[in-house]
# Entry
Amino acid sequence: MSDVATPTYYYPNKMGRIVLQALEEVVGRNGLIAVLNLANLLHFIGHYPENNLERGFSFDDLSRMMTALEQLYGPRGGRGLALRTGRVCFKYGIREFGPMVSVAELSYRLLPLDLKLRQGAEIFRDIFNQYSDQQVVVEETPQAFYWRIERCPVCWKRRASQPVCQLAVGVLQEALYWVSNGKYFTVEETTCIAKGDPSCTLVIYKQPLD
# Structure
């Protein structure tokens, strides 16, 4: 009986380009080269994906980069760098995707905070679901939003004893900071597919820290 091949899923090239640009900003060019070398992704050195929406940046490649980051800098250091990379990813990403959605409009920025958080979570969910093979579901309780990644590129094919999707946590942290005009929110990954959970759940607590 032959094994069933694992499907290949993708981000658009534009998102892959953003990740590589952000990672280079965080660890420097030499650090990026070391990560890509360890991940056996040398073809990206000096040749970032095209700035288009074609789905050509694989979940395998992103997951291997995040694994290599932890191997180079240790689990704690690597995850800290992944978190920072995620924050930079959002800053690049809002320039690329913001004009395509209503979050870039002044009318959105002037909404009450609770409504901005709700609409922002839904808009960012739709960006990933529409333009990539990542699958996100958003649920809400009075205290928090639950950002559930049901097909996760960050930990794709990984196995770990604790959550490893700090890149996604960083993206959401910076998104919340931007949406709220400078407030900080707690974002915590409580379940992770790499641990054997059915989804990667990122809990976004509604009450800002300051």
Remarks:
- The mean pLDDT is 90.
